[in-house]
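Q: What would this chain look like folded?
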Amino acid sequence: DDDKKSKATTLKQLIQTNDYVGVCVLVALDLDGGDRHPLHAALMDNCCNGSIVTAGHDQASRHLAMCFLLKKEHRMAFEIAEGLASRNPDWVDIQSLVAQIMGDTPGAEEEAAQKVASLRRAYKLTPDTEARLTAVEAEIAKRKGSS
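A: My prediction, written as structure tokens:
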């Protein structure tokens, strides 16, 4: 019940800020079957191709970067997130998203590891952000181990 109430609150906030890309991300991530659900691909495709318009604020742009990441379109996700990160150096969440994108990008393992280390040095991280960075390191280690 608390989880549903939290999602409902988040959904209401996204709608109030006209962040329909964020609404799509929230719905897509909550679908049974995850990225195998047909609606997941439709939502992500429509956000990425501009059919669902991104609101003119940074949070909505962050959600668009997440859509491209979910579609495994790392270059576009990185371009959007990196632009946001350079304009918002104190926004730890977007800085960690850049590290996540780099960690998911084949061939960018070293840069991702350096980004994670620099984030740990530069910011006081929440447990949630630290967990995301640890997941990035695990992904890098898994890819290095399989190559």
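The radius of gyration is 16 Å.
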